[in-house]
Amino acid sequence: MNLMRTAMLLAFMTALFMGVGYLIGGQGGMMIAFVVAAGMNFFSYWNSDRMVLSAYHAQQVDARSAPEFYGMIQQLSANAGLPMPKVYIYDNPQPNAFATGRNPENAAVAASTGLLNMLTEEEVAGVMAHELAHIQNRDTLTMTVTATLAGAISMLGNFAFLFSGNRENNNNPFGFIGVLVAMIVAPFAAMLVQMAISRTREYSADRRGSEICGQPLWLASALAKISGYAHQIPNEEAERNPATAHMFIINPLSGERMDNLFSTHPNTENRIAALQSLAAEFGQGGYDPRSTARASAGTAVRKGRSVPSAGSGRGTSRPPKGPWS
């Protein structure tokens, strides 16, 4: 199913490339766009993860440079039965995280410095378990390829703008109207791609991530904090690369709080409610997101700090035991 969905998505993006190319340069433009799109499809399959990580200036870490964080990912990966992914940290004050890679054998997880500094270790574990769930569900290929192609398609708007100033261009069968349509379509390409990414996969990753770390309330607490901070702390890299917004656990851009057609993520309150129900299935207590908003950010996952052991009693509104401790 994921392979078919990826193939359909790539076909759609290729057709969009060709359509905009035709509007800009006629049949010649369409053929050039087809060649470029084919090359982008091949390139993005093998390199889209590197491009996304590079866009956020993510730095790879290991057991020596970030022992606590790396060790947490190692234990969570073992819980999920996944190969150990590459681990990255990117310097950004907004707490957030994403996963990338074409398959579980070639995957990577990345967390912002804001996430590690503002959330408790339990909440970080919930977030990273969610990202590992995306890897296990093989969502990352679709997410990274669409991010790369959407960014490339958006660039066609610039070409359309350049072509609009050339009145002697006879290759465009629709004239200025065709160029104008291309200029309007291209900026919305990223939004269309994000809409094509089913938001149900976030709910699925929330559930599977909760199973990996064993604590739905850790993720619920993390989502409440990240959502609040995301609207207060800008993510300049994400603003420059809006096509990557759907890759993050919470939308890094300012805007959509409603669970509507144009949102790249489900409503955070809906996700928390689903996690509360899952916690009840697990036999855990309730969770009030308002208490988290008032709570201290707690202990961050920093070098030299230990993950709390079972029954340590630290953190907010969580059961006393986690399988990764």
From TrEMBL:
Keywords: Cell membrane, Hydrolase, Membrane, Metal-binding, Metalloprotease, Protease, Stress response, Transmembrane, Transmembrane helix, Zinc. The active site is at residue 131. Its EC number is 3.4.24.-. It is a multi-pass membrane protein. One of its GO terms (molecular function) is metalloendopeptidase activity. The keyword Transmembrane helix applies. Gene3D superfamilies: Metalloproteases ('zincins'), catalytic domain. One of its GO terms (cellular component) is plasma membrane. Binds 1 zinc ion per subunit. Its cofactor is Zn(2+). It is found in: Cell membrane. Pfam families: Peptidase_M48 (PF01435). Residues 72-278 form the Peptidase M48 domain. Zn(2+) binds at residues 130, 134, 202. GO terms for biological process: proteolysis. NCBIfam families: PRK01345.1 (NF002363), PRK03001.1 (NF002826). Belongs to the peptidase M48B family. This is Protease HtpX homolog. It comes from Allorhizobium borbori.
